[in-house]
Amino acid sequence: MGTNKTPIEIELADDERGFLERVARSFTAPHRDVIRAQLILSLADGMSVSAVGRQVGLARRIVCKWAVRFGRKRLMGLDDAPRSGRPPRFSPDRRDALGEARV
User: How far is CA 81 from the centre of its chain?
Assistant: First the structure.
């Protein structure tokens, strides 16, 4: 049988922990950012990958994905990676004062 100890060990600096705790408690941050902050904090506190997955409602492989990305890029790794596809036709910065798209 396997153990409940996760092979992923995350050490947080004080400023990283403070930032992640603020995001994890935030009511205005995007939900995905709150979940990612909670899972990194839980892993740093020594919880297993399975337990963190149950706590935040994500599969083990997704928890591992974000833990590995955090380990490589730290806080920058929690941002979404750029995606391929057609660029937006109307961007938010190309609007006039009334909110209408400029031509």
Answer: 11
35: left (phi over 0), alpha (psi -120 to 50) or beta: alpha
Helical (H) or strand (E) element with 87: none
pLDDT in tens, 39-84: 999 999 989 999 999 999 999 999 999 999 999 999 888 888 888 8
Cα separation values, 60 from 13, 53, 67, 88, 99, Å: 25, 6, 10, 33, 42
CB 2, CB 15: distance < 8 Å = no
3-class state of residue 74 by DSSP: helix
Give CA–CA dist 5/22, Å, rounded: 27
DSSP 93: T
Q: Give the rounded percent of residues in the chain with a pLDDT score beyond 90.
A: 59
Structural tokens at position 92: 């938010």
93, 87 Cβ separation under 8 angstroms: no
